[in-house]
Amino acid sequence: MAKSTGREPAAKKPDDAAKPPVVREPAAPPAPAKRGAAKSVQGAALDGRPWHESHLAMVRRARRINRELAEVYPYAHPELDFENPFQLLVATVLSAQTTDLRVNQTTPALFAAYPTPEDLAAAPPEELEELIRPTGFFRAKARSLLGLSAALRDRFGGEVPGKLDDLVSLPGVGRKTAFVVLGNAFGVPGITVDTHFGRLVRRWKWTEETDPEKVEAAVAAIFPKKDWTMLSHRVIFHGRRICHSRKPACGACPIAPLCPSYGEGETDPEKARKLLKYEKGGFPGQRLKPPPDYPGLAAPEAGPR
């Protein structure tokens, strides 16, 4: 193990799904890049020194982060409840500007009322709006759902297509939604650039781009295609559980030694642990029906409105 920097997070605790994540002893930060490097990344290392590295070193560090996250989140998965491609497509459209938990609490009644594209395309707009009201922006989302369902009925025989160009031709479906469906319903690799993913890859200095398509292209150039879907799940899981937007739990982060932005959040291990969410903090996750290997608790069903 590399020499300690003297700012170690807390020691490893027994394996317990409801307890905070394992925190490894920080490794020494990467050595400064050699002069003349064609590309470089700058930030702050764990010990406070400036972070300089070549483009190649950044790629190696990014791939190591992915390997570390695979150990932290071996159960990473899409956090929307679904049983078929159509349900996943609808749930993903509904997930815009709300939480997956809110969507999961809303879709059981929606799918019971309108189980197929043909059913949903014929839904009275007012009734559909009322069913999806808890997800917010319900009028715009209802228009998208009615439009994409009619397109599935009329153009694709009532089936969700398994090609990117076909999916993004549907009303309300962009690249992010399309890659969620392709990766998780059809096994086609894709990078899902949501707000969590974009925030973390910029914190990790994988890219400085803010446009989702440019972020997607930059990250795709770093990783093999076969890794794209699971990489997306791991990064999003980490963003929701530990590397939060306003108060990242730096002191409880298992990849802190690899992060150029260490110190943006709480570095005290005990205080950082109090910031952990979902199964890392001992709380329910976002799915009412999580996968069998999920170590946390199932989310509660929606109460009366």
From TrEMBL:
<keyword id="KW-0540">Nuclease</keyword>
<dbReference type="GO" id="GO:0140078">
    <property type="term" value="F:class I DNA-(apurinic or apyrimidinic site) endonuclease activity"/>
</dbReference>
<keyword id="KW-0326">Glycosidase</keyword>
<dbReference type="InterPro" id="IPR011257">
    <property type="entry name" value="DNA_glycosylase"/>
</dbReference>
<dbReference type="GO" id="GO:0006285">
    <property type="term" value="P:base-excision repair, AP site formation"/>
</dbReference>
<dbReference type="GO" id="GO:0051539">
    <property type="term" value="F:4 iron, 4 sulfur cluster binding"/>
</dbReference>
<dbReference type="Pfam" id="PF00633">
    <property type="entry name" value="HHH"/>
</dbReference>
<keyword id="KW-0479">Metal-binding</keyword>
<comment type="function">
    <text>DNA repair enzyme that has both DNA N-glycosylase activity and AP-lyase activity. The DNA N-glycosylase activity releases various damaged pyrimidines from DNA by cleaving the N-glycosidic bond, leaving an AP (apurinic/apyrimidinic) site. The AP-lyase activity cleaves the phosphodiester bond 3' to the AP site by a beta-elimination, leaving a 3'-terminal unsaturated sugar and a product with a terminal 5'-phosphate.</text>
</comment>
<protein>
    <recommendedName>
        <fullName>Endonuclease III</fullName>
        <ecNumber>4.2.99.18</ecNumber>
    </recommendedName>
</protein>
<feature type="binding site">
    <location>
        <position position="243"/>
    </location>
    <ligand>
        <name>[4Fe-4S] cluster</name>
    </ligand>
</feature>
<dbReference type="InterPro" id="IPR004035">
    <property type="entry name" value="Endouclease-III_FeS-bd_BS"/>
</dbReference>
<keyword id="KW-0238">DNA-binding</keyword>
<dbReference type="InterPro" id="IPR003651">
    <property type="entry name" value="Endonuclease3_FeS-loop_motif"/>
</dbReference>
<keyword id="KW-0408">Iron</keyword>
<dbReference type="GO" id="GO:0046872">
    <property type="term" value="F:metal ion binding"/>
</dbReference>
<feature type="domain" description="HhH-GPD">
    <location>
        <begin position="94"/>
        <end position="241"/>
    </location>
</feature>
<keyword id="KW-0234">DNA repair</keyword>
<keyword id="KW-0411">Iron-sulfur</keyword>
<feature type="binding site">
    <location>
        <position position="259"/>
    </location>
    <ligand>
        <name>[4Fe-4S] cluster</name>
    </ligand>
</feature>
<dbReference type="Pfam" id="PF00730">
    <property type="entry name" value="HhH-GPD"/>
</dbReference>
<dbReference type="InterPro" id="IPR000445">
    <property type="entry name" value="HhH_motif"/>
</dbReference>
<dbReference type="InterPro" id="IPR004036">
    <property type="entry name" value="Endonuclease-III-like_CS2"/>
</dbReference>
<dbReference type="Pfam" id="PF10576">
    <property type="entry name" value="EndIII_4Fe-2S"/>
</dbReference>
<feature type="binding site">
    <location>
        <position position="253"/>
    </location>
    <ligand>
        <name>[4Fe-4S] cluster</name>
    </ligand>
</feature>
<feature type="compositionally biased region" description="Basic and acidic residues">
    <location>
        <begin position="1"/>
        <end position="18"/>
    </location>
</feature>
<dbReference type="InterPro" id="IPR003265">
    <property type="entry name" value="HhH-GPD_domain"/>
</dbReference>
<keyword id="KW-0255">Endonuclease</keyword>
<dbReference type="InterPro" id="IPR005759">
    <property type="entry name" value="Nth"/>
</dbReference>
<keyword id="KW-0456">Lyase</keyword>
<dbReference type="GO" id="GO:0003677">
    <property type="term" value="F:DNA binding"/>
</dbReference>
<feature type="region of interest" description="Disordered">
    <location>
        <begin position="1"/>
        <end position="46"/>
    </location>
</feature>
<feature type="region of interest" description="Disordered">
    <location>
        <begin position="281"/>
        <end position="305"/>
    </location>
</feature>
<keyword id="KW-0227">DNA damage</keyword>
<dbReference type="InterPro" id="IPR023170">
    <property type="entry name" value="HhH_base_excis_C"/>
</dbReference>
<comment type="similarity">
    <text>Belongs to the Nth/MutY family.</text>
</comment>
<feature type="binding site">
    <location>
        <position position="250"/>
    </location>
    <ligand>
        <name>[4Fe-4S] cluster</name>
    </ligand>
</feature>
<keyword id="KW-0378">Hydrolase</keyword>
<keyword id="KW-0004">4Fe-4S</keyword>
<dbReference type="GO" id="GO:0019104">
    <property type="term" value="F:DNA N-glycosylase activity"/>
</dbReference>
